[in-house]
């Protein structure tokens, strides 16, 4: 809970926050509809070769090894939990944030990619997935090198915001394609 007297934490009225959410939902719906209608297969049909359609879209989780290696370099793996410093080493913290954010996006990415590949178009899903992977890699590299910088100076939004657009658009495209198949 934020202190109303605390001027360092800006608060957004609930009504404005709901309006912003509805704008995003509308935008993702329109983008998803564009994918479904422009690139979607015949509604109610599945691809002839599901493995071929899904294989390019199944990707690996990134940055797991980087966190462990950073912890190893700092000697953290040889310490017990009670002996760890109150504040993590900056390199370890930044790599941990990269991993955490990656894992936060993975459910939406995996579900969106799978459904888009299966219901809409495997090639479109794999191209969007490739763009997502490249952006996430750029995000990870930028964040890892952010030591000593203020969060505003790092510039992570230019990588992570498009990733959310890609994931949400694939989910909406799959949803619209499913509805198109149902009403057909």
TrEMBL record:
<dbReference type="Pfam" id="PF01124">
    <property type="entry name" value="MAPEG"/>
</dbReference>
<keyword id="KW-1133">Transmembrane helix</keyword>
<dbReference type="InterPro" id="IPR001129">
    <property type="entry name" value="Membr-assoc_MAPEG"/>
</dbReference>
<feature type="transmembrane region" description="Helical">
    <location>
        <begin position="21"/>
        <end position="39"/>
    </location>
</feature>
<dbReference type="GO" id="GO:0016020">
    <property type="term" value="C:membrane"/>
</dbReference>
<dbReference type="InterPro" id="IPR023352">
    <property type="entry name" value="MAPEG-like_dom_sf"/>
</dbReference>
<keyword id="KW-0812">Transmembrane</keyword>
<feature type="transmembrane region" description="Helical">
    <location>
        <begin position="156"/>
        <end position="179"/>
    </location>
</feature>
<keyword id="KW-0472">Membrane</keyword>
<protein>
    <submittedName>
        <fullName>Uncharacterized protein</fullName>
    </submittedName>
</protein>
<feature type="transmembrane region" description="Helical">
    <location>
        <begin position="108"/>
        <end position="135"/>
    </location>
</feature>
